[in-house]
Amino acid sequence: MTADVSLHERPEPDPEPERVLRTVDLAVGYRSRGVRRAVLEHVNLSVHPGELVCLLGPNGIGKSTLLRTLARMQPALWGSIELAGTEIRSMSAVALARRVGVVLTERIVVEALSVRRIVELGRYPYSGWFGGLTDADRAVVDWAIDAVGARHLVNRDVSQLSDGERQRVMIARALAQEPMLLVLDEPTAFLDVPSRVELMALLRQLTRAGKLAVVVSTHDLELALRSADTVWLVMPGGELRCGAPEDVIVSGGIARAFEGRHVRFHGEERSFRWLTGHSGSATVRGYGVHAAMAKSVLEREGFAVDAETGDSAGPIVVASESGWRWSQNGTEASGKDFASLAAWLRKRSRVS
Amino acid sequence: MNKREALMLVGLVVLLAAVLLLSLALGSTAVPLPSVVRALFGSSPDHDSAALVVWTIRLPRSLTAVLAGAALGIAGLQMQTLFRNPLADPFALGISSGASLGVALVILGAGYGPAIAFGSSMGMRGDALITAAAIVGAGVVLTLVLLVSNRIANPTTVLILGLMFGYAVSAIVTVLVGASQPERLQQWAQWGFGSFSGVTWQRLRLFGPLTLFGILIAASTTKQLNALLLGENYAKSMGLAVKRARLLTMLGASVLGAVVTAFCGPISFLGIAVPHLCRGLLGSSDHRTLVPAVVLLGGTVALVAQIVSLLPGSAGILPLNAVTSLMGAPIVVAVLLRSRRGAFAA
Questions:
Q1: Which among A6, A169, B224, B331 is least surrounded, fewest beta carbons within 10 Å?
Q2: Are B303 and B65 in contact (CB under 8 A)?
Q3: Nearest-5° angle of CA A57, CA A59, CA A65?
Q4: pTM of the model
Q5: Check: complex ipTM more than 0.85
Q6: What is the distance in angstroms between the CA of the first residue and the CA of the last residue of chain A?
Q7: Would you say A301 and A345 are in contact if contact means Cβ atoms under 8 Å apart?
Q8: Contacts of B229 in chain A (CB under 8 A)
Q9: Are A214 and A238 in contact (CB under 8 A)?
Q10: Chain B partners of A129 at a C-beta cutoff of 8 Å?
């Protein structure tokens, strides 16, 4: 346990006051029976207006804890969090809600409430004692609904929306708080692939106006690396790396954070590939999609596929529209589709 | 508020007024409606026995029913929204059991004789003593539950905690019942039936302001309840001080439940059913319309139960508690089955 020194020390004034968010030597984690257990320590981050930040890292490493702490849904253990230069501990609940909007993974279970009323709830920190809305409030609600493209949903009941539509509505509700920072904890977790892409595109579009900053955690590595302005990568062990996605890829950070027994991150493709080679190596000849598919089959069966060298001693697979042909040391095989290629490779590996 | 909701609320006001008049007219002897109206506005002859019955017996009883029903309805709504649980009711934190224990200790316990003696020395009649005992019992249990729940983050755990307290306290009551003499059991059972008839004008002077005040406090949490619809995490992120709101809601709803129990006995079912009926009727979970609706419909349902419990006429009365449940349970089932839009229907 580190001594609790920095908690009461005021950090230096932010040299860049236009920043949306700054953390200084922040530690996040849990307290139980007076003992603080840090999940992430020495976190120094900043977010600028109009920035889309993706928080990446393996499961259970503390991404949610960090986001919950940034949104003051749980207290920081040490260090400070400043929103536009103001320490969040000193803000009232309403003042905070006017600066930070939150979207969570959890499915809301409310029934019999229209989309418009859900978005209107976002005016909570502005509305009066009984929650009555002014015309200005309604204008913001309309703006938020349009911003997420949910105009056609306004009169629908939330319980009848798809998961993707519902998350959109929850984002509109957060936007209705007119925040400078939107924090989203795995908002795409329950969504199908097109909805995930749509949601990420929406977040990107929201930040393009240049004011709103977004911090979003996701498991969708490839999508995040393609969409984010900045990546916060939590390494195993709790080190936090920040940078443009491309820099984080080139530094090998992603590959190391997501190291697996069977897969490896491939930077150029921004995706995972099977670790290959235990079945030997092979050469593929041919063009276009047929050659690519033959390569895919070979890799799945454990071959390291090398580029055309011409003098390879290993097997050679020729792929074309009419099918595939395998040749190695006089052994020949051929077939019409890739299922038969896979079957042949499996049969061969059982024999040898 | 859309057109449908506005119409519904107007309809509920009219319904409440109609049932209120009906409850004044019906009873062991029927009083014609014109006489009821005359009695209400004081323009009937002084020695009109019908007016006397309406004014001194039926009006306080009906007002009690309206207030009790409204209180239980709004308290049930608060608890269901706070705990996001369709089964929650004003007694979710064990206060009904606490009130029972207080009353059981007075009626059944060894302290009966001394308690009566103490009560009369303080100028309290039997029923006032029972009311006081119920309030004390409910208060003790509520304090314990709130103290423990303050250390608990998860609302469902708080609900289970209340349930467990309720079980434990009920067990003590059962022990008391098992060890008592038959004639006292009769009095105990009488209390358990529930009744709006025990509240006279004099007692209404205390019961009325207490419930009205509680209902107003509860109604002022409308905005917080709406935020809580999305769960405590979202409510917090939208600027609700969740811990304080939770404590105030539990306290307010429980006090309403305790006051009603103390004056009318344990009235089950109303608190759980009325919010469901209102959501079904309005097709909305928005508390800006639900809150007035549960107040109006709660009062109406309590009045109807009161009327039905007197139906046997000279043959006696049905236990109010049995009427509320027997009458209401099928209605709620029907509403839940018919409307997929009812909250929690999925």
A1: B331
A2: yes
A3: 80
A4: 0.84
A5: no
A6: 56
A7: yes
A8: 108, 110, 113, 121
A9: no
A10: 220, 223
